[in-house]
Amino acid sequence: MVPKSKKTDAEWKEVLTDEQFRVMRKGGTEQPFSGEYNDNKEAGEYLCAGCSAPLFSSTDKFNSGTGWPSFTAPGSETSIATDADTTLYMERTEALCAKCDAHLGHIFPDGPEPTGMRYCINSASLKFVKNE
Ligand code: FE
Predict the structure, then answer these.
(1) What is the reported pLDDT for 88?
(2) Distances (CA, A) of 39 to 17, 54, 84
(3) Catalytic residue among 48, 51, 100, 120
(4) Which CATH architecture has domain 9-130?
(5) Residue 41 Cα to ligand 1 middle (Å)
(6) Catalytic residue check, 51
(7) pLDDT of 91-120, one tens digit each?
(8) Residue 101 to residues 4, 82, 113: CA-CA distances in angstroms?
């Protein structure tokens, strides 16, 4: 089990931007092609913007053409939690930070090899740290 990081909405509002709060704590979605990491091709790690848990690696990032940062796999088996999301009259798998329960995006089974998975993630939920 990953130790949980719990904060109230008021506490999250102190450390997140309005857009981050809307996406991460209220399950919102940023506008496609609007996020700062959609086109990022630098080598590094993507951390949770809320609790800094490592979530994704640039080695698993690919250009999905959707307008959101997309990854074929999580950085580790335990970093991402999932939940069934039936809002918007669709059945989707929600991706959450396993440590702070932040909404990250959704997971779709239409990604490229080797996993065939597409982790479609809001830039707002991520914090990129470039490799030294
Ligand atoms: Fe987190």
Answers:
(1) 78
(2) 21, 20, 28
(3) 120
(4) Beta Complex (2.170)
(5) 22
(6) no
(7) 899 999 999 999 999 999 999 999 999 999
(8) 8, 10, 28
